[in-house]
Amino acid sequence: MVTRDELLAQIGEEEARLARLERQRDEARARLEVLRHQLAATPSPPATPHLPVITGTAAASTPAEKVSLFRQLFRGRGDVFPRLWVNARKGRRGYAPACFNEWVRGVCEKPRVKCSECPNQAFIPVDDQVILDHLQGRHVIGVYPLLEDETCWFLAADFDKASWRDDVAAFVETCRSVGVPVAVERSRSGNGAHIWFFFTAPMPASVARKMGCYLITETMARRHQLSMESYDRLFPNQDTMSRGGFGSLIALPLQYEPRKHGNTVFLDETFEPHPDQWAFLATVPRMEPARVEKIGHEATRRGQVIGVRLAEPVGEEDAAPWTRLPSGRTRRALITGPLPMGVRAVLAQRLFVEKAGLPSPLLNQIMRLAAFQNPEFYKRQSMRLSTATTPRVIACAEEFAQHMALPRGCRSDLEDLLGQHGVALVVEDERHEGNPVRLQFQGELTAVQEQAARALLQHDIGVFVAPPGIGKTVLGTYLVAKRGRSTLVLVHRRPLLDQWVAQLSILPWTRRVRPPGGPSSTGSSSAIRPSG
Predict the structure, then answer these.
(1) What digits encode the pLDDT tens for the residues 217-270?
(2) Please, which residues have CB within 8 angstroms of residue 434's CB and are 6 or more apart in sequence?
(3) For 157-187, b where at least 16 C-beta lie within 10 A, e where not — what string?
(4) Residue 428 class from Cβ within 10 Å (0-12 exposed, 13-18 middle, 19+ buried)?
(5) Phi, psi at residue 450, to the nearest 5°?
(6) 3-state secondary structure of 5
(7) pTM for this structure?
């Protein structure tokens, strides 16, 4: 019989062993972090897009086993599901909640009454027969992934641009480097793909989406061509359930008719369908919620969930403000590859930056100078309103064949960014100076207006923010006269345009100055020409 002292000795040995393993784990994590930073800063060599191979032998064989496996993976709301409808006469199609009362005279009042607001809801629940009918082609259905408690069993990313193969290959490579298992499905049209992440238990959608956003951000660090619209193509498409809604939907795979043409099926590393779809699905790994949460937490700590500057009101990153940099800006990865000594840019209606010689990671950082998180998205989400048509990120950069176009106000940020990498910015000014106009300002500025005018005249670009009643129109008129150039006044609402026209026409703030040797002309209204 083992004595107490022997047991204590064995316990001590095991505890010491655990301590050694924990130290080794921490060291491995530190090395892994360094390697991931190096990978993010290293341009990927051009290669044939490929996907990871997931092999397996166990597969569902009977219809009942296939339905069971399908329902385990593609779990969403069980009380309602969307079903595809097609109007052949009008050439339209879409999804609507499947309902026992659909088009019942005197009961269903579509489209006047939305399904989510209908007092006669009788939604059809998901059961084995519903799934079997989908697989055997009797109907096409989707799933509402966001559960009523705002959790989800899976996350999916949609790629549907012309470059979807390259986008998917780069995204999958990122997932592989982080250790995240995925399944790639070709879309119904055949011109896109869905990337699926499956979980062992339902988890908060906000956490799952945070991981998805981080993977997109990391992919863009190596492939700048990936659109920032990708942040809006995650399913679930929202962190919270809008009032009375069902959340976003995504079409389910393995649709009968498209499957005959190699679509809505899962692909191997060469973008060809797996020969046995059920054998593949039976072996797809599922992630533990703790692992997903850890990835999201680390991404938040590094400021890489979205990777663009925050706007007020901010999103979930603001829940932990101590994780943000003091400047509010995100950390930029240092690019170690070869860089040019200088970058040429043309300053015109925008700042056009030449792309020649710039690696994709640097182009991605340049694009992000002109992007910010949309405060309206977070405002609507906090109010539990639909964000279906509200982008999470507003991107103002535009890519051309040889140039990257930025708003002119990004010039100083671009100089700072390039300076951090030891690259000089050479700007060629091609702006149109406008036509000279000889004007004199006849009014009198207040002390605040004079202070603002002095500050603004020192720069050729800037923003003046002031509350109503401060006299911004008066100040603008003064600046026009001081600059002596033809001026275009742009406003976003008709009442503001009327205000400019009325005040400039009524009050004698400006008058034309007689050119040398020319006839005199006074008055300001003749110079005001509203456009549009």
Answers:
(1) 999 988 988 888 888 899 998 888 877 788 899 999 999 999 999 999 999 989
(2) 485, 486, 487
(3) bbbebeebbbbbbbbbbbbebbebebbbbbb
(4) exposed
(5) -65, -40
(6) helix
(7) 0.71
